[in-house]
Target: Oxidoreductase molybdopterin-binding domain-containing protein
Amino acid sequence: MEGDSRGSPVGRRVVLGMLGLGAAGVAGGAYVQNRLDGVLAAVSSKDPTGLSGFVPGAGGFRYYSVTGSVPHRGEADYRLTVDGMVRSRLSLRLSDLRAMTQTKLVRDVQCVTGWRVPHTPFSGVRLSELLDAAGVERGAKAVRFTCFDGAYSESLTMAQARRDDVLVAMTMMDKPIGHAHGGPVRLYVAPMYFYKSAKWLSGISVTDNVRPGYWERRGYDVDAWVGRSNGRGDAPV
Model:
């Protein structure tokens, strides 16, 4: 990403305030959501921050970027690296990921701002299997995730990363994850608020400590368990 193509960082208060509009779309059903999509399309065309894309729209939710634009990656040029405190550095193509054992989860998607999309299928490779393939070194305590938007990052403790409900996902709702939804590969951390499920995933790095991600540096909890963090009492997914 270069200079003018990036949007300005978006603060937590601004995001929380704008989500009231999206909540109305989720509650109001398809008609309201579709009308909302038209408004958001007009706004987002002149929105360098990507904030307008954070508002849930048709289908129950809308993805957004914290930068002005995100490059596309596909079959020819996508690579996922696994490095850091590992015995063998990995560079994986989409075909490599598809050749591994696939796991499907059907859980609710819960945003920290309050909206929820129930029974959303995701499938992909368990993160723990990629860590095992690379060989985690002694003393490793966390995993850091980076994205090809050039700005977003996230982290999990090693215990969190090895849970069975944490995926490097390639399909959502039984279809390949498209660019707008964070594809071709994104993280999916089922029991945590959705900001932990980093989009446009490009790097997995094993580290000796937890490094706060994009939203944690702006006030969100590092541990983001649904119903137990960020001051929310939502039912666990």
